[in-house]
Amino acid sequence: MKSNLYKGSLSTIILHLLAEKREMYGYEMSKLVKEKSDDKLLMTEGALYPILHKLEADGIITSDTRYVDNRNRKYYKITEKGAKQHVLSLKEMKDYLQTMQNMLLPTLPTQNALV
Amino acid sequence: MSANSLTKKQIDSLFEFVSNRNVPYKDVQFEIVDHLASAIEDEMEQDASLDFDHALDLVYGRFPITGFGHFTLEKEKALKKYWRRAMWKMSVNMFFSPVMLCVVCVFLVSYVLMSTYGGITIIPMVVVALAAVAFGFYSYKDSISGGVNVDDYLVLKTFGEVTWLGSPYGFLAVFFLRDVHFFSGATVPMYSKLFLSMLITFYLVWAYVARVYFPSLIKKEMETFLKHH
Fold this sequence. Notes:
- The structure holds 2 protein chains of 2 kinds.
- Chain A is 53% helix and 17% strand.
- By secondary structure, chain A is α+β, with helices and mostly antiparallel strands.
- A 3-stranded antiparallel β-sheet of chain A has the order 1-3-2.
- In chain A, a hairpin with a 2-residue loop joins strand 2 and strand 3 (71-78).
- In chain A, helix 1 crosses helix 4 (80-104).
- The two termini of chain A are 23 Å apart.
- Chain B has 10 helices and no strands.
- In chain B, helix 4 packs across helix 8 and helix 6 runs parallel beside helix 10.
- The two termini of chain B are 18 Å apart.
- The chains are: A alpha+beta, B mainly alpha.
- Chain A binds chain B through residues 25-28, 31, 44-46, 49-50, 53-54, 56-59, 65, 67, 69-74, and chain B through 1-2, 5-8, 11, 30-31, 33-35, 37-39, 41-42, 62-64, 66, 70-71, 74-75, 77-79, 81-82, 85, 221, 224-225, 227-228.
């Protein structure tokens, strides 16, 4: 999916992954998103890392560096502040999806939202 | 270590590849290298006939046309934001911690000195300037790096840029904020003395956080990072 539609949702997706998995590294996230979306969502490097760095600067996530497979690897974790943000983001997303459905596709049955 | 892990030599060649593409900072390089290496390992696992160089071409082709430049710029912005927030938060915390007693003392000493010496406030200013120079000697470059070139690490470079106010140069900026009548021998009004005392107090707190507190934390981080370099 190349559309801009999901660009604004990237941070919500990242927070959701980190809330589920406890800790992840950058490549692992992009791979998991690709797998979970059946290759429809491609979280490119150019989009993923700036968001990770921004979330880290805002104290939403934190990182820890470890030596794995001959190289340093940065693992990201969600913070307490991030966990609260995650709950809010999911609620916003649910409302947004519901509104879009009501506006554009009112005839479709209601789908199960993210939460 | 997984079966398809790249060798140390291949990882080194990735570092060279990244540094030749406009990424001079080692801390930025390691994040890109890990991403490239993980993606290459994945590609080679899926297609056993693929060699390292071809896998690298394949993976690099997925990066934007600007290569890694965008990555560095965005990280620089984020790090500056992080340091500004961290410095501000920690400086404010100093006013609400046991250190507050010292902070109050600095304020009182500044005020009393200015009141005692009246118009010739150049004397307490010189005292504070000397303290600032002492902080300057305790340079973050020396205290953090332990021989590492600060300009090689974006995290250190951005820290230095954000906290320049904690340096003696920063002090000079604070020093000249006030009216020139401080040098003239004229009587200084009370509100000016209070304001300047607060300014000096906040400056010293900021300098302490920038020169002593954060460098000790960064030094620990750097030691972990450099352990494998």
